[in-house]
Specification:
3 domains, about 325 residues, Helix Hairpins, 15 helices, Four Helix Bundle (Hemerythrin (Met), subunit A), single chain, mainly alpha
Amino acid sequence: MTKRSLWYNYLNEPSTDNFWSMVITIFLSLAIVLNILEVVLGSVSEFSVYMADWVVIVNYSFATIFALEYTARIWTSAESPHEKPFGAIKKRWLYVRSPMGLIDLFSFLPILLWLILPNEMLGDLRILKLISMVRVLKLTRYSASLLMLARVYRENKNTLLAAGLVMMILMFIAATGIFIFERYAQPVAFGSIPASMWWAFVTLTTVGYGDITPITVGGKIFGSVVMVCGVGIAAMPAGIFASSFVQLVREQEHERRKKRKMHNRQMLASNDKRSEDDSGLQHLDMSQSEQREAAYLMDEYDLSLEQAMGVVMHYRR
């Protein structure tokens, strides 16, 4: 295994069986959590005043860590497995333009811009820190639950897109209808179709802030129809996510049970073979100590009966 492929496994395939992989994973996860904590506490005025001298140093440190991580991921992405035999440059470009690649980039890019551009162009550093909160999405790499949600989205993106399109069409119809009924009664809130979009969106999603409501009889009747339609439309994405999530959990549980059964079968087969070998040892022209030595070699080094016998006979001669 080359050094690049080794680092690819460290960064992209964390395993409890690999010490350095777990060290890198824990270090990056801790850096993300500490950065989020610093941004959240920085919004508290007392804390921001107390940490004023350390804010820049802390942000430099986080930006450096995530910039180095981004560079390492670009370098190691040439080792990523892919269905098509792409070259190293193509694989790196696929990573750079991927969603996780963009998240990795924007985790340190705002601070880099703050270093390069004058403050008058970007304003307060806190705005850049808030933009850098995209780092929280990096935790999806280290959470099986978040990865499962991302997989649910990928597998149902066409269905969710269709549901979103239906929502947009109904929102346009609702905004147009309420504009017809309420434009004269409430010219400020419903004076145009774009202005009515807010009411249509809030009503169709069943949020119902109540900041603007129809007051005419026709507007109330039409609003009631929109509310009934909104209950079904708003439930579509939730139902898609829920059913797909449950199905994915069942599939993973089935795979775990299947692997467990295969492992148990292999263990039983190994034990049966070991028992046969142990019984075979008793019928060989070997002393008690030589039989124990052969049994030890089979158990400790997973040798076959013939291999263990060969080692013992070699030293007998």
